[in-house]
Amino acid sequence: SQQGEEDPQALSIQEGENATMNCSYKTSINNLQWYRQNSGRGLVHLILIRSNEREKHSGRLRVTLDTSKKSSSLLITASRAADTASYFCATGRTGANSKLTFGKGITLSVRP
Amino acid sequence: DSGVTQTPKHLITATGQRVTLRCSPRSGDLSVYWYQQSLDQGLQFLIQYYNGEERAKGNILERFSAQQFPDLHSELNLSSLELGDSALYFCASSAQTGWETQYFGPGTRLLVL
Hints:
The structure holds two protein chains of two kinds.
Chain A: E1 5-7, E2 10-14, E3 19-24, E4 31-37, E5 44-50, E6 55-58, E7 61-66, E8 71-76, E9 85-93, E10 99-102, E11 106-111
Parallel strand pairs in A: 2-11
Antiparallel strand pairs in A: 1-3, 3-8, 4-5, 4-9, 6-7, 7-8, 9-10, 9-11
Chain B: E1 5-7, E2 10-13, E3 19-24, E4 31-38, E5 42-50, E6 53-57, E7 64-68, E8 74-78, E9 87-94, E10 103-104, E11 108-112
Parallel strand pairs in B: 2-11
Antiparallel strand pairs in B: 1-3, 3-8, 4-5, 4-9, 5-6, 7-8, 9-10, 9-11
C-alpha cells in the first residue's frame, strides 16, 4: 500500500500565488522527501526533512513535518509558470526494511 | 543532470518480444532502483539492487528480471511483453541502502504495439 498520500491531487494557481501541497503517511518514518517531475522526465529531489525536524527551507520552498499527525506540507512561494510539474512526497524508513516509498503525486499548474 | 544515465531513451516493440533496459548509476552510488510509471498505476517500485545483490522487491512481474553487474550498472529485462507493459521505466540510484535521497535517470519510454 502507498505510504504517502498527497492532497490535493491537482492544484491550479496564478503565477505569483503560493502553492501548498500536503502529504499524509501511515507508519513511522525517518525522513520525508519531496520530489518534482516535469512531464515525462525523471524525478528531481527537492528537499529532505528528518523526523526530528519540524520545518526546513530551501529557496522558495518551505517544508513542515508534523510527526504526531503523520503529515507534511510543501509550500512554494511566489510561484512561477516553470513550477508547473507533478510533486511527489516520499517517506524514508531505515532498519531491516529500509525503503523510500512514493505517493501518487500532485499535479500543479501555474497559470502565467 | 542527475548523473544517472539510461539507455535507450525510447523503445518500440511488439507483444511477445523481449527488451533490455540499461542504467548507469551516479559515480559512487551502490544502490540502483527500477520504477515503472504509467498513467493508471502511477510510480511503481519494481526492484532494488545494492552492490550487486538484490535488496528489495516491489511490484515486479515474473516476466521481468534485473541484475546489477560488478561495475554497478544495472539491466532490467522485460520479456513476453504485453500492451500493458507500455510505460516509462526509471532507474534511480542512491549512495547506500534505500532510504536516503534517490537520483533519477531520464527514463526509457517503452511502447508495446
